[in-house]
């Protein structure tokens, strides 16, 4: 089974290996050669730079080569790690040979040993890379992982040095009561530059990504505010050097402001400037207490700037995603509204067509039937039995005619087209239907409702029609009223009855029965607001509001 799995993996790798071109191999070899030559110079240069930040004389300083190594290992692909390890190891061999007279012997062995030790130290970083966890600060989680991976490098390296390198282990020469303090100082001496390099690297990366907007008005505001803030702190320090402690504490508040105002670029820019200012302030200092105090602020500002930039970036992405979703919802809502409008228009068109068909075809045939029965009645006046039959036919035809006439006008009342909305609502069309059901009807209209557009007039008529039908069928009411007020683009419709009201479910939403969905749909089509409320003394009140402009 293991051979089969290995064979499958090899089959997947072979096409990738075959796809590598000679040009890619040459570029890779050139890049590795440059790394091997440049890394020693960088290692030695930052090693010399570390001499300017001594915490404990001849013992602990801020070890900047550690920060450079961590940034390189974190953000260089794994294929370049052998070149990085060789280059950094050669740098260490060269400066120990130059500054500490260590013999240049067994270099291949020392390189192999150093590479093995480096890969052991870098196990957490290797695991993160193999798991393809993004090493960026686009989210707070990723920022925490980057900080953890960077600090783990220093912690594991220091533990290995302290535990196994007895020949150079200076801690065994320190008194027991001071040993822990020195070990802690040694750890921080490597962590401080790591955090500084991470902060500067991410600042440079953000500037590189946003270089095209550096000349924008927003960037000008950022640079201006950074300069003003820096000048204020420098001026305050020059006027009163003893205020340094207070200034370092107060510097955290502008960090929050820049994060809020300018996002990740503001947080990282301000954090970098603040850290660089602190480095300049203690440059060349050998005052242990000052260095220890400054360490705390550098750690705080570096970690806060990275985490705040990650938080703001994540928040902005979530905000953008939310705005896009809202935009999509608005578009869907608009599409739904347009669809509802089309449905209502089609429905109204069908009703109008059906009403016209009833009028033109069935209505005319029924009229002809009534006329023929009347003629037949005159011609057969002497025949009693035939007279009774004709009377029954006449009654049936009259009933059919009245039913079709009522249905025709209920589908599309000609009064609405001929006389307008107010006349249609106050006509016998409503009062007679409600009277037949034992319900008294009243209608009050204030304002020029007949000046409304056709869509509003049809919607109002259908809403009142649906409400009256619900009252007759379901409410057990004896009173039904419509009150319409229209003034300055504000239209309000209040429909009341004294029936049993609507059944209210446990989730405080009214049951969707009784035809209220049709009322909701017509109100929604015209962007109105609709409210159903059961009265305390019985009955139902429907309040509908439109803005008609």
Mind explaining what this structure looks like?
This protein has 549 residues and is an alpha+beta fold. Among the domains are: 181 residues; 129 residues, Heat Shock Protein 90. The chain is 72% helix and 8% strand. The protein is built from 18 helices and seven strands. The chain has a five-stranded mixed β-sheet. Strands 1-2 form a two-stranded antiparallel ribbon. Helix 17 runs antiparallel to helix 18. The longest helix has 92 residues. The protein is elongated and about 145 Å long. About 1% of the residues have low confidence.
Write the layout of secondary structure elements.
Layout: H1 2-18, H2 22-50, E1 54-56, E2 60-61, H3 64-75, H4 81-100, H5 107-121, H6 123-130, H7 140-164, H8 176-209, H9 217-239, H10 244-250, H11 252-282, H12 288-379, H13 384-411, H14 414-418, H15 421-426, H16 428-436, E3 440-446, H17 454-475, E4 479-487, E5 490-497, H18 516-525, E6 529-534, E7 540-547
Parallel strand pairs: 3-4
Antiparallel strand pairs: 1-2, 4-5, 5-7, 6-7
Name the structural class. Answer: alpha+beta
Biggest sheet layout? 5 strands, mixed
Count of DSSP strands: 7
Order of helices and strands: HHEEHHHHHHHHHHHHHHEHEEHEE
Question: How many separate helices?
Answer: 18
Helix-residue proportion:
over 70%
Distance between the termini: 76 Å
**Hey, roughly how much beta strand do the residues contain?**
5-15%
Q: Overall pLDDT, averaged? A: 80
**C-alpha geometry:** elongated
- Strand order, main sheet: write it out: 3-4-5-7-6
**Backbone CA Rg:** 44 Å
Low-confidence stretches: 506-512
């Amino acid at each position: 089974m293991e051979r089969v799995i290995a064979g499958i993996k090899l089959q997947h790798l072979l096409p990738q290996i075959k796809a590598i071109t000679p040009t890619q191999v040459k570029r890779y070899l050139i890049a590795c050669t440059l790394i091997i030559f440049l890394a020693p110079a960088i290692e030695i240069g930052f090693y010399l730079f570390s001499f300017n930040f001594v915490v404990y004389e001849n013992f602990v300083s801020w070890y900047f080569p550690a920060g450079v190594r961590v940034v390189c290992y974190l953000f260089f692909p794994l294929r370049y790690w052998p070149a990085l390890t060789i280059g950094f190891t050669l740098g260490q061999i060269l400066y120990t040979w130059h500054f500490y007279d260590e013999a240049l012997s067994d270099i291949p062995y020392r390189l192999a040993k150093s590479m093995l030790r480096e890969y052991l130290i870098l196990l957490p970083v290797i695991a993160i890379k193999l798991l393809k966890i993004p090493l960026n600060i686009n989210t707070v989680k990723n920022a925490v992982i980057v900080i953890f991976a960077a600090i783990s490098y220093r912690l594991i390296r220091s533990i290995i040095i302290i535990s196994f390198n007895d020949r150079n282990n200076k801690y065994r020469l320190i008194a027991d009561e001071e040993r822990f303090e020195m070990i802690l100082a040694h750890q921080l001496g490597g962590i401080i530059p790591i955090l500084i390099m991470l902060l500067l690297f991410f600042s440079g990366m953000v500037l590189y990504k946003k270089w095209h907007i550096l000349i924008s008005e927003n960037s000008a505001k950022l640079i201006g505010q950074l300069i003003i803030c820096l000048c204020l702190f420098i001026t305050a320090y020059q006027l009163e050097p003893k205020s340094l402690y207070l200034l370092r504490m107060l510097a955290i508040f502008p960090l929050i402001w820049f994060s809020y105002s300018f996002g990740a670029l503001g947080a990282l820019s301000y954090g970098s400037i603040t850290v660089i200012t602190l480095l300049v302030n203690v440059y060349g200092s050998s005052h242990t207490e000052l260095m220890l105090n400054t360490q705390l602020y550098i750690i705080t500002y570096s970690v806060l700037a990275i985490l705040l930039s990650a938080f703001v970036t994540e928040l902005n992405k979530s905000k953008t995603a939310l705005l896009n979703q809202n935009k999509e919802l608005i578009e869907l809502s608009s599409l739904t509204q347009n669809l509802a409008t089309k449905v209502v228009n089609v429905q109204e068109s069908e009703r109008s067509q059906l009403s016209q068909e009833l009028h033109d075809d069935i209505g005319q045939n029924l009229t002809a039937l009534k006329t023929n029965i009347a003629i037949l009645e005159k011609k057969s006046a002497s025949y009693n039995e035939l007279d009774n039959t004709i009377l029954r036919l006449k009654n049936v035809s009259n009933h059919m005619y009245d039913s079709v006439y009522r249905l025709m006008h209920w589908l599309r009342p000609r009064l609405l087209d001929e006389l307008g909305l107010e006349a249609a609502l106050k006509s016998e069309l409503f009062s007679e239907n409600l009277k037949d059901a034992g319900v008294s009807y009243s209608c009050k209209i204030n304002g020029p409702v007949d000046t409304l557009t056709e869509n509003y007039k049809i919607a109002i008529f259908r809403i009142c029609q649906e409400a009256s039908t619900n009252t007759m069928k379901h409410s057990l009411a004896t009173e039904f009223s419509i009150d319409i007020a229209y003034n300055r683009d504000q239209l309000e419709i209040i429909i009341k009855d004294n029936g049993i009201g609507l059944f209210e479910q446990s989730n405080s939403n009214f049951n969707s029965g009784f035809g209220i969905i049709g009322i909701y749909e017509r109100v929604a089509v015209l962007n109105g607001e609709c409210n159903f409320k059961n009265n305390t003394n019985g009955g139902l009140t429907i309040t509908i509001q439109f803005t008609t402009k």
